[in-house]
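Example 3.2
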Amino acid sequence: MTLARGEETTPAHPNDVAPPASTKSGQPIAVWVLAFAAMVSFMGIGLVDPILKSIAANLDATPSEVSLLFTSYLLVTSVAMLVTSFVSSRIGGRTTLMAGLVIIIVFATLAGTSDSVAALVGWRAGWGLGNALFIATALAAIIAVARGGAERAVTLYEAALGVGISVGPLVGAFLGTINWRAPFFGVAVLMGIALLAIALFLKDKVRVSHAIRPADPLRALGHGGLLVLGIAALLYNGGFFAVLAFTPFTLPYSAFGIGFLFFGWGVLLGVCAVWGAPWMHRRFGLTRAFIITLGVFTAILVALALTVDNHVAVTVLVIACGAPLGVLNTMFTEAAMNVSPVPRPVASAGYNFVRFLGAAASPWICGKLGEEIGLSAPYWFGAACVLGGLLMIMVFGRRHLAAINTRH
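Structure, written as tokens:
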């Protein structure tokens, strides 16, 4: 899932920015430091997937209670998106990045000390605040310090996202075999390394281009195109997290089995986010690409609901759905950044606020449906959500997407 893409910062006056040290690849060291930190941040999304069943067993929790690990994390991330640009415009991009990492380190460590699922859910909420501060600024900082233009910087960011999402489940599985608490401590250590690296190598004074007030992202949603895309993405996330948050409870696999399953899913997601989305856009046009890809994802969710008792089929379908998810993540975010006349940081904050509400609600709803109705119910719910997003695009989004094509 592409997070907060489109946030823009610009360096201060050129005389304020020291020439960054370069690597043999031609990119400044600071770019690779930021890419590493972004990768670790995105690892946190899927890190808990392989240990969900272990957490439930050790803390005597139900699937819906454990799913609140996603809900609290993403709900706080959603709300915090409204203020992250305001904060970074006041204290600067570098300081915002470091503050976000410090918060993640503290709350990831506290999560590892939890003795109840309620405490763990609470610490994950604090983690979400740090995550919002970091991810809302990371791409902007990479764009500010990278060589080769924004397009190359975005590619590096997308690559970091793909690696983080795919490797996170494997790291969670490996550390989870030691103890279910170990993945949380592992993230804290990795984030500590990233914090130290940013402190040492990111010396540039990265400033946000616009002084953004907290209410600006909400006002931006008054633009019909941005609101339509936000609601469509909210519904799409209902299906995304039906797969991510509930699938571990449908399969008899060990933590390593779940880890490798979502590793394959994440690799396909990352590859299609970087290369698949641009190809779809060129080949079919933006509107048709949305319709085709949302339709494919809906069909996969229906197939998951119909074959939920066939573990081989579920495994294949979950990995396969990484392809449409990668394409949709990139297309949704790029469309949201270009659909309205407001500054990109404002559009990003408003759009992410809306779509993360869907990401926060879906895991808990899917957990309850799975407990009270059956294992297929969360996938039917996800399919209905994605179909709703498809209808939003077809009925209300065509004009706005056509306007993006006209401008570009």
